Amino acid sequence: MRLIPINQVKEGYILGKSLYNDSGQLLVAKNTSLTNSMIRKIKELGYNSIYIVSEYTEAEIEEIVKPEFIQKTINLSKKITNMLIDRKGNLQKSLYELSQIINEIVDEILNSKEIFLNLINVSKYDDYTYKHSLNVMFLAISVGRTLGYTKKQLHDLAIGALFHDVGKLFIPKEILLKPHRLTSQEFELIKTHPQKGFQFLKEYTELSAIIRIVSLDHHEKWDGTGYPQGKKGEEIHPFGRIVAVCDVFEALTANRPYRHEIPLFEAREYIFGGGGSFFDFQVVQAFSKTVNPYPIGTYVKLSDGREGVIQNTNHNFYTRPIVEIHSEEGKKINPYTFNLLEVNNITVDSVIYDFSFNKAG
């Protein structure tokens, strides 16, 4: 099984994992042979990537977080947001329910062997903000785990991450979803959302200050060039520093109205390049140990031209995976295993979605 962008899916591919709509209803069952009309429908529903069965790897991709937890979190987040806007309903009861689900999600991630596989862009929810915030939350918990945070710290970090963009409720949707470059005036308006979100949570919820601070600090930069307050270095709360990294990474790897997503490994390199300037380098180091840019089942081309499938990872050395080679000089060969950790002069050059010998055929 492997995860590939929907625009790389071809008729006849076999679906590796079932697809569901926003209400949890089955759309397409696993092991279905996809037709062109199915692929078009999946695109229309907003799926950016799907799992397909691969003849070159039988690896099963485990769900780190149970789908029912994901759906409950989405539903409760929407419910709480609507309560905050309408000032109706039992807000504290809903926040308590959310807190309990967050505890279960934290347990799931703490007990998983692989800290992070592919939590992003796999499924579609009916509002980008909810999907984005949920994925940022997953990433933040994972990074916090790597940093050795306690379960209570992870719980607070998770809720802060989930509501980090609540201030965007006060930004016109036509600006948030604008398909072209923002004007300077529009960007200045966007830059008000951290302060607005922080004040909103302070006024209308009983969430602790340590949770609320995430909404305020997640656009601050380590070198002081961020917003809204231009905080620098240690002035930025540690939760804000973590969510800043996760927020940018998730945004880069998701489709936006004004650009397409970029591959995991490219987004990871961008984050690493910003360590010490945009981002706290300690957080970046933890992030690099957390996010695997080449999950098992990924097709890759090596710097010497060979092509293969990621068979396994080397813990803490995600950029030096174990590859099962299937192609040399564009020709199909009897596969063999190659461990990049054992060589210095060969690297992963790029992610591919088919082997050269299949294209030639």
Automatic annotation (TrEMBL):
Pfam families for the chain: HD_5
HD-GYP domain span: 107-303
Spans traversing the lipid bilayer: none
Protein name, UniProt field: HDIG domain-containing protein
